[in-house]
Amino acid sequence: xxxxxxxxxxxxxxxxxxxxxxxxxxxxxxxxxxxxxxxxxxxxxxxxxxxxxxxxxxxxxxxxxxxxxxxxxxxxxxxxxxxxxxxxxxxxxxxxxxxxxxxxxxxxxxxxxxxxxxxxxxxxxxxxxxxxxxxxxxxxxxxxxxxxxxxxxxxxxxxxxxxxxxxxxxxxxxxxxxxxxxxxxxxxxxxxxxxxxxxxxxxxxxxxxxxxxxxxxxxxxxxxxxxxxxxxxxxxxxxxxxxxxxxxxxxxxxxxxxxxxxxxxxxxxxxxxxxxxxxxxxxxxxxxxxxxxxxxxxxxxxxxxxxxxxxxxxxxxxxxxxxxxxxxxxxxxxxxxxxxxxxxxxxxxxxxxxxxxxxxxxxxxxxxxxxxxxxxxxxxxxxxxxxxxxxxxxxxxxxxxxxxxxxxxxxxxxxxxxxxxxxxxxxxxxxxxxxxxxxxxxxxxxxx
Length: 448
Fold this sequence. Notes:
The chain has 14 helices and 2 strands; from the N terminus they run ααααααααααααββαα.
């Protein structure tokens, strides 16, 4: 496949803020040119629903990064199965990913591809975001109506009804599968009601004053069923540097690196840390950042529908499996954060640039999921794919240029050192773990 090229052109389309307003959702499509080709209507449906998805992630309180990654994966699979059901060049994921059985089959009748895709996305988003607030509910209702008009333009009523129903059936099949993975129910924002903290000096300790965060986020997430990771290779990692409080030890030196870097941060390093921070409720989360990058590629390079569907399925599964592997390692190792160690032994008043997340340190979730995302995207678009990432432009954060997906992943990873969030081994080994995850995802055959 010839790698596509993403230019640094000005980002097109409505601002993200407009997508959460019902009236703005209606205005989004007003005045749009008539779309005659099913493929063009389908790409409009896919792209616009995903833009709203990023905003729902931002504004739905239960969507921490692991939970967001799960939604992206199941939605991506639903999208792919909807598109593949009408494209003989694509091969279903059934029987290829863990636990997914064959889904519904089309009748010997006419279908419209844009309507099938729209039906699947309407059902999937409403299923995954039934707990979002009133503004999100209104936005989904408005988007259902307006994108329904786009999908159904020029389509016979019986064909439209059949196609929407089939898309819904695909999503229902995916949703039933998702209910058995261990991550379908999120209680208490993901924080366990009861949890016994580790008793070792090296054990993770709460770093927040918020009551609910005195226990770690989603300690059992690593036990969830993965999409592609086999039981004999869950992408585990060797242990990090042995804990020590001796000033001459390797572990102390790693902590000193975090401390010293924090004292000499350049403006560029601060910008990098904030660009990749992607805090829940303030952004579409770290996995949403990589979905945003994919959406920018789609728009700027007019990516064909089949490749868009492949991208959303493989990228979604990569970031989801990345979080499962990462969370398994985090709670197996149970390592304290730099802020805990530095305040204990080096500087009692030290403050990192960024807030420390409420779960163990090793490895870096940013590193693992970015390494997995970069591996998949490089396989789909090329290893030297240069692009400009404008994910946070609406928030007043300037776009950044990257020579490759790997370069972006490495910057996302090192941003956690600049932010004072991670020791270097957690950063570097997370990228290794992410590459392992990508390797498993890329064994999935999406082509017939």
